[in-house]
Here is the input.
Amino acid sequence: MPKKGTRTADVDTRWDARRLRRRFEASKLTTEDVASKLDVRAYTVSRWIAGRAEVKITKIKPLARLLHCETDDILPE
Here is the structure.
C-alpha cells in the first residue's frame, strides 16, 4: 500500500534524453570530454545520454554551452 500522500497514477518520471542524445551525437564530443569539463565522471554522462539519470540543475547550462545550444534544446519536452 502506498504511503499517505503519495501519487499512485501511472506517470513516467524517467528522464527523456532523446534531445540531449541528438545534441551530444552532433557535437562529436566524447563522454570523457564532457565529463572532464563538467567535473563529473564519464559514467555519469553516459547515464544522462541513455536516459538513466537526470542532469543536475547546476550542470544544465554548462552542458548546453559545451554542446553549443540553448538549455531548452537539451531538456525533455
About this structure: Helices lie at 18-27, 31-38, 42-50, 57-66, 71-74. Residues 18-72 form a domain with the 434 Repressor (Amino-terminal Domain) fold (CATH 1.10.260.40).
